Input
Amino acid sequence: MNFDGIIGAAKRMGPKRMVVVGESTSPFLSPVFDAYNSGLIDPVFIGRGNFNLDYKKFECIQEPDIEKARIKGLNMVKDGEARIFIELDLMGPGLFAMLNKKKSGIKKGRILSYISFFESLKDGRLTMMTDTYINDYPDIKDKVDIVENAIYVANILDISPPKIAALAALELVNPALISTIDAAALSKMSERGQFGAAIVEGPLAMDNAESASAARHKGINSPVPGDVDIYLFPDIESAYMTAQFLFILGKVRHAGILGGVNIPIVTLTPLDTRSSCLFNIALAVIQ
Output
């Protein structure tokens, strides 16, 4: 599946009611209207400004206090009055703190993580990479949650069993490199069925992950190399820089989704564009 397939699937499942929180001057308002015109969503706006400048038929709730608007919007989704939440701004500490509250009922029993999607340069297939935006230096416990979040999303997209490359600087376990130890532990957990049907292989350097023959040359016999669905990065530096390289220099179509939540929440990052935001919304529609 690629992003065209995601848009097609979202059209068949939509339109879904989406709470849109923020200001009417936000540049991310345009992809919201794109999603409406594509039949993906039925928006209700909460925030500051004239959201109905060109679209008189939308419900608009004026709330100058963005925190109050955010609370109202999230409660609407929790209570079933809407299906999707989006805030028309980059994900910041205010929204993150609200989602992380134990009593909010929004967060699953795992940490939050961000999953980026891109169309593979090799075959155009939709591929995931994580965590590209939230967790700076996850430890092994965090990485278990990040893997679980990615598997949950993969299952929604009918990627089964998802094949996960636990990346490190090299493919050998080196006590001096914690990323190789974590990757090996995750791989062993997968081998013992702790991630269900998902297959985690690691540690893998990028050349081993991308090429089955390169992996076999290094003595790695696994179905993951050369057929990766999810790239698990050791830290946010390597993940975000790779995303920047692919999205800015490689010009690949991309999107993202927040993992570890009970309701579909569209979050925005500095790498998002008008088209990627539309894909983000489409991913939320099919959740």
The chain has two domains: 1-107+275-287, 108-260. The chain has a mean pLDDT of 93.
